[in-house]
Structure formats: C-alpha cells, structure tokens
Amino acid sequence: MTWKIQGISGELTGQEISIDRDMLVGRHQTADIVLQQAEISRKHAAFHLKDQALWVQDLNSSNGTFVNDVRVENEALLKDGDIVQFSSLKFSVLQPAQAVEIDSDLQIPAAAAEENTSANVQAPAFDAAVQPSEAVAVSETAQAAPLVNSPAQQMNDQGMPALQERHEGVQLSRDGMPQNVAVPKPAPIPEGVDISAVKPESAPTPVEQPVTRVEQEKEQQKNASVGLMSLIVIIILAILAWLFFK
C-alpha cells in the first residue's frame, strides 16, 4: 500500500508525495522528503509503515510536528484526511484505495448459463423465396429486435419535411442530411440596451487563515523581545538623565 501526502500550504501546495516505505523528513539533503525552509530541523520527523498503517514520529524538532493542530510528543497514527504539520508547513494525508477482491468460487447459475447458451445460438438463414409473412412467423427474434431509424427517418419523425418536399438545390449526404446550409447570424442588439450596465460579479470574500500554535509562539517571542529592548532603552535614558542633572 502506498500512502500519499499532499501539500496544502507554502510552496508545496498541490504537490503529492508518495510514502511506500519508512521516510525521513527534514532540511538535510540526505532526507527522503527535503523541506528547505529555515524553520524545519535538519532531521525533523519520520514516517513509518507498520502493518499497512502510517505513523508519524517527531525527532525532537525545534518547532515541532503536529497532527490536526495537536503536537506530537513521540509518534501518532495517521488516518485518511488528517492534517500533518511540520512547523508551519501543512500536508493532507491520503489513504490508498482498497483493492476489491473478486471471489473465484462464485459460479453462474445453471438456468442463467442455459439462457446465455440459447441466446448465442445463431438463427438459421432464410431462403430468399420465403414470403415476408412466413419469415416473420418463423423468426421470433427478428420481431423482438428494435429497428434503428436512419437520420432522415428521425428527422421526419421530429417534424422535418420529407426528402421529396425539400428544395431541389439543397445537396444531401448519403444519410439524407442537408449540406452547405448557411448558419443564421445572431440577432442584433436592440438600440438603447447598454451592455456595459451589466453588474460585475462580486469579489470573493477573503478567508482568514487560522493562526497556528507555532505562529502564536513566534509572535509572543517577538513581543517579548520588543518589550525587553524598550526596557533597556528606558534604563539607559534614565541613567543618562541622572548623570546629566547630577
């Protein structure tokens, strides 16, 4: 069984990666699935196949491995439709289709086999001298067979004029279809109708992407760094002011 993951964020959106063995995920070139983003560890995570089931294991990565927004502490079992996330890169898990097994012990019933055998028996050829009424009486299969109308007959059934009623200058094909018939031009636009007045379609409403835990932690670290720098600047300014007014 070959599992697949499909990228749903970043530069790998829409790309499918097949997983048919144990595979390493990371930024290092020796990894089976190489992710070049700086937030990915050199050996970030690993996929394992156990009894045709797919597992993901976090290899003590810096930014973590998540399954459905839940951080993986050791390893987690994956199912079809799960969202596995390496730092901020998300992938959708695709389970392989199950093969349909056909039971070889199933046999066709004897009555059905006899019907198929009798249906395959060819009807005897009729003599050319047999009258139509006698031929109909002899062959019941010929009565049951539906008649396929020619294109000309279908046109007559739909109300089209017969071949004799058509204009003599119209050329007909072997099937009775008219040829070299000019296609009528579309009707002109009436005066006073402003085509530009058609309202344009409304622009699609942008959908805000949910903020992941990794992004929240980065934002908190950024705010903490800005607050610390502001505190240091205030202390320096206070010292300078104290020295100046001393």
From TrEMBL:
Q: What UniProt keywords apply to this chain's record, in alphabetical order? A: Membrane, Transmembrane, Transmembrane helix
Transmembrane residue ranges? 226-245
Pfam families xref list: FHA
Residues covered by the FHA domain: 23-72
Which PANTHER family does the record match to this protein?
NUCLEAR INHIBITOR OF PROTEIN PHOSPHATASE-1 (PTHR23308)
Q: What is this protein called?
A: FHA domain-containing protein
- Native source species: Acinetobacter pragensis
